[in-house]
Design brief:
Largest sheet: 4 strands, antiparallel
Structural class: alpha+beta
Distance between the termini: 35 Å
Number of strands: 4
Shape: elongated
Helix content: 10-25%
CATH topology: Thiol Ester Dehydrase, Chain A
Oligomer: single chain
């Protein structure tokens, strides 16, 4: 992630995201943030598709310890 420019207090900021790669359960996104004067930052974000039931079971087990 880069922080390329400051934004004045009160100025609107928005983000744009594009899914650029799918590799099995792995998803890669390019992200960019803008204000009224132009791009203020950006980067690449990686996520994985999970099995919710399996994830919840692990979380519940951890909570019980």
């Amino acid at each position: 992630v880069t922080h390329d420019a400051p934004t004045p207090l009160g100025m609107t900021v928005w983000c744009e995201t594009e899914l650029v790669e799918v590799d099995g359960r792995r998803l890669v996104f390019d992200v960019a943030a803008y204000d009224a004067k132009g791009k203020i930052g950006g980067g690449r974000h990686e996520r994985f598709i999970i099995q919710n039931e399996k994830f919840q079971a692990k979380a519940n087990k951890k909570a019980e310890q």
